[in-house]
Amino acid sequence: MNLKYFLILTLTAALLVLPGSCASKPEEDQAPPPPAPAAVEPPSSPAPTPPVSSPPPVPAPPELDAAGYLARGNDFAQQGDYPKAVDDYTSALALDPDFPAAYINRGAAWTAQGEYDRAIGDYNEALKLDPDSPAAYYNRGIAAFYQENYDQVLADNNQAIALDSSYAKAYINRGNEQARRENYEEALADYNRALELASGDSYAYFNRGLAQARLENYREAAADYSRALDPSSGEGEIQPDPAAVYYNRGLSYHRLGSLDEAIADYTQAIALDPENPFAYNNRGAAYSEQGDYEQAVRDYRQALEIDPDYATAQANLRLAQEAASEAAPD
């Protein structure tokens, strides 16, 4: 499963007034999920990749101790082999039942496999052993997110930050939850703090751009999306989907009236994700605003070819066809 922290945030799209009293509607933000569960240091965290099936684990040599099982489990997790990782973390706990890192990392492996109840059980055990573990709270918040227990998400990230005020990923996830609640000012404050702590995190820039756009700070949003696309902004474990970044930057340019830039970004988003009907619809709306109704009609038709029930594109197609007919010479 994908462990990104996608927040599908929707707004009623504003009408864009076109020549001939026509109006087309662009669709709103397509946002990206929480960062992958964090392992206790020094172990590294599991990569956000789908679990893979594997044969029964080969028994470890008898000299492998609990720390050795933990280290090998981390290697399996980084490879995306979460069942083997779970086996090794379980072996570590059999040798040392008071090993909070093994509970936390096994919880992360359970989360990667969609076993959220098991994950939360392991994080709870870790917190019994180490009540001051920010990683356990942070990871439990991720599992709670997938269970749609949003109050727990907020509480756990609050506690992680209270225990470690430099925990950048916890600020990002708390910001994501505030954004989901449409508390965009609070989300923005958390993303700002995360970027103070991890200035090269492209995922934080992307999510801050989404919050800026929700606050109608489109110029600032476009700047954040540009930073998210900057190759030097790649310190975070999670990288935003470039197609989503181009789409959202195009939407901000669109709101600013920078139609050429918007069209260029929608075009790039389409090149990266040709099955996105919203990008075609929005590019069609930009072309309509420029009076290029023929190209707009082509884009709306392409959007409807991908999604025949896409009502916004249906309405926009009719408007563009009417405008093209009115603009045609007699």
Give structural notes.
The longest helix is centred in the last third of the chain and has 17 residues. The chain has a domain of 128 residues: Alpha Horseshoe (Serine Threonine Protein Phosphatase 5, Tetratricopeptide repeat), CATH 1.25.40. It has 330 residues and is mainly α. It has 15 helices and two strands. It is elongated, with a radius of gyration of 23 Å. The N terminus is likely disordered. Strands 1-2 form a two-stranded antiparallel ribbon. Helix 2 packs antiparallel against helix 3, helix 3 packs antiparallel against helix 4 and helix 8 runs antiparallel to helix 9.
CATH topology heading of the domain at 37-164: Serine Threonine Protein Phosphatase 5, Tetratricopeptide repeat
Tell me the major beta sheet.
Answer: 2 strands, antiparallel
Helix-strand makeup class: mainly alpha
Total helices: the number is 15
Describe the secondary-structure layout.
Layout: E1 16-18, E2 22-24, H1 66-78, H2 82-95, H3 100-112, H4 116-129, H5 134-146, H6 150-163, H7 168-180, H8 184-197, H9 202-214, H10 218-229, H11 242-256, H12 259-272, H13 277-289, H14 293-306, H15 311-327
Antiparallel strand pairs: 1-2
Helix pairs in contact: 1-2, 1-3, 2-3, 3-4, 3-5, 4-5, 5-6, 6-7, 7-8, 8-9, 9-10, 10-11, 11-12, 12-13, 13-14, 13-15, 14-15
